[in-house]
Write a structure and sequence with these properties.
The protein is of the alpha/beta class. It contains four helices and eight strands, in the order αβαββββββαβα.
Length: 237
């Protein structure tokens, strides 16, 4: 009777059962690896948000400056500000106000936060141009994407869809920093329209470990189910 298990149909079933078991097991280990990556990333985020602010030069001197707290001093160049659109928060339409901060050595784009203003009147009420100190979180360029709105490829931009620093650099001849800053605080208060600060980075909580257990359960079901089927073929029942 065991010869039946060596027919092409059964051999194909053996290969399929083994293949599914291995594939499900590999997917489980892949999700487990993502679980550890997420845990490490959350630990790094927690450590960086607890650090005291450093200078932008110190932050960008390391291999991974993102999410580090920094302090940068300079003057806002309000006429050159950008409007990051479309944006909506708490049911209100507006934009995120991206203002160049001239440090004397380079230009640093500062995301001052959301303004509930559909018309863009922040340009008419920019606030003071006095020197101030910005405390914020370092963020990397958003670059380009295949999905969603994109920045126009040419021309000087006032309204942008993404903070693509390579695209924006030509319109800031003073030298644009290769990172930007999400605002946390300003000293002194520059005035202007009230903004809702950028949302602080939060830890990710994807259930990758549960996904790993799920894939391993599928592997067990595939292998045990096939063994049961083979036993029935051999011994009946």
């Amino acid at each position: 009777m065991s010869s039946r298990l060596l027919t092409p149909r059964w051999l194909s079933g053996h290969v399929l059962a083994v293949g599914l078991t291995v594939a499900f097991a590999v997917l489980g280990f892949w999700q487990l690896d993502r679980h550890y990556q997420q845990r490490d990333a959350n630990r790094v985020l927690e450590e960086r948000l607890a650090e005291s602010p450093i200078s932008l030069a110190e932050a960008t001197a390391v291999d991974d400056p993102e999410l580090r707290r920094v302090q940068v001093s300079g003057r806002y160049d309000y006429p050159a500000q950008l409007e990051l659109r479309p944006r909506a928060r708490r049911g209100r339409v507006g934009y995120e106000q991206i203002v160049p901060l001239d440090t004397g050595n380079q230009i640093v784009l500062v995301n001052r936060g959301f303004i509930a203003d559909a018309a863009g009147v922040a340009r008419l009420d920019p606030g003071t141009d006095a020197e101030l100190t910005v405390t914020g979180t370092v963020r990397l360029s958003q670059g380009t994407s295949r999905f969603g709105p994109q920045n126009p490829e040419t021309g000087v931009l006032e309204t942008i869809a993404r903070i693509d620093l390579d695209r924006l650099a030509p319109q800031f001849p003073g030298g644009l920093a290769d990172v930007y800053v999400d605002l946390i605080a300003e000293e002194p208060d520059p005035g202007g329209l009230e903004t809702m600060l950028p949302a602080p980075p939060e830890p990710t909580n994807r259930p990758n470990f549960l996904y790993a257990l799920q894939w391993w359960a599928f592997a067990g079901i595939a292998s045990i189910g096939w063994v049961v089927l083979v036993r029935k073929q051999l011994y009946g029942g």
